[in-house]
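Our preliminary data section would be incomplete without showing what the modeling component actually yields. Below, a chain of 123 amino acids is followed by its predicted structure, encoded as tokens that our downstream tools consume directly.
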Amino acid sequence: MNILKFLVSVIFLIYCFSSDLKAKNLEIEITKNLRCLICQGQSVYDSDSEFANSLKILVEKKLNEGLNEKQIYIYLKDKYGDWILYDPGFSKNTYFLWLLPILMFIFGGAIILRKVILKKKKL
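Predicted structure:
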């Protein structure tokens, strides 16, 4: 009977530790995807500014309240705007940002294709 109690205790501790570890990993992942508004080009995870530290605490608090990653991003985006996210979603405000690389690729491909076709015609 003592062995059974011991095994149940060990399994319970492992479960608690793994769930805490998962929550901490999620907190780190979220803060790495947030831009520090004080430090230019630095994530909240990498920054030690007061703003970044307060956001780290806020993210931890929101996770403890039961919010998921998407809900936290929505909350922060509503509060600080799209610029706080390193990976803003596709919306009417960011469509040009997402489509620009595709347009550049198509335009560059057309120029290269035109040069190749013109060279073949000259030969």
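The chain has a mean pLDDT of 82. The CA atoms of residues 12 and 98 lie 46 Å apart. Preliminary results of this kind motivate Aim 1 of the renewal.
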